[in-house]
Design goal:
By secondary structure, the protein is α/β, with parallel strands linked by helices. It has 14 helices and ten strands. Helix 11 packs across helix 13.
């Protein structure tokens, strides 16, 4: 049986699944391999110490799905690093959006969405992505994402829109000054990750009307500005991957129902679905 190495990588972390003879599997975790932020040499050096000792060099096929793989050039950055580690393997690199689609729907058609630090939505025909709406990042888009909800939460805190009891909880929890927040958002590295780190506060206080309304509005914006722009969206099932989708699944299901979807599939992480997909294909 072929030894297959399958990866789902975000910007901050990556999950690798090695499948072997007799249906055996092994999971390895590393930091993320986003080629927008990391060079081929950087990726190679980390995986040489964090991945290769766990898998050994005898890998036949590699299927890598990752954030930042927006074209063939970015995909080649990761692919070259992997082939230096596994020179006899056949290696493919794909976007995290295709990974979400295959994990959710396998060989069936559907609308595949990502709701994590960022957000995305695409139409999948069971083989490839046929249509998508540009996410545009957390300043112009990324509706429903952790970064955008964190941005709204932080703005409401400093503008005193957030109810006083929650403002007091927020201040005690994070101890953040306005100057620190502005510096992290406008001058710091990875401001989207900084903003997304506030979404657990929404989850912890999801029993309050304020938090429910913020999440509800964010998800409605995601559907209005992304899902409904896909052609014939009413005719397909919908599914989501990502931590935001998983932890706010009740509100997400309610929003999906309001937009006419009968059933919603939600996966916290796509790696298991991808392993199943590549075992069958």
């Amino acid at each position: 049986m072929l030894r297959k190495l399958i990866a789902d990588s975000g910007s901050s972390k990556a999950a690798w699944k090695l499948t072997g003879s007799g249906g055996s599997t092994q999971t390895i975790l590393t930091s993320g391999m986003n080629p927008f932020f990391r060079s081929e040499e950087d990726i190679f050096r980390e995986l040489e110490t964090a991945l290769l000792p766990a898998t050994g060099p005898a890998v036949d096929q590699i299927f890598f799905y990752g954030a930042g793989i927006v074209d063939a050039e970015k995909g080649e950055v990761v692919r070259r690093a992997l082939l230096r580690l596994y020179p006899h393997a056949a290696a493919e690199t794909h976007s995290d959006v295709l990974g979400a689609a295959r994990a959710l729907f396998g060989n069936q058609a559907g609308i595949a969405c990502i709701l994590g630090t960022g957000s995305n939505a695409c139409l999948y025909n069971g083989q490839e992505i046929t249509d998508t709406v540009s996410p545009l990042g957390f300043i112009l888009g990324d509706e429903g994402s952790g970064a955008v909800m964190g941005r709204k939460l932080l703005g409401d805190f400093f503008k005193q829109v957030m109810p006083l009891p929650l403002r007091e909880l927020f201040a005690h929890r994070f101890g953040l000054t306005r100057e620190e927040a502005l510096n992290r958002v406008y001058r710091g590295e990875k401001p989207n990750h900084f903003l997304a780190a506030f979404t657990p506060f929404l989850s912890e206080n999801s029993h309050t009307a304020y938090c429910q309304e913020l999440v509800n509005k964010s998800f409605s914006e995601f559907f209005e500005r992304n899902v409904t722009k896909l052609p014939g969206y009413q005719n397909f099932p919908i599914g989501f991957v990502g931590s935001v989708a998983f932890f706010f699944s009740q509100i997400l299901n309610e929003t999906a129902t309001a937009f006419g979807f009968d059933q919603t599939t939600i996966l916290k992480e796509p790696i298991e679905g991808l392993a199943n997909y590549h075992t069958k294909n």
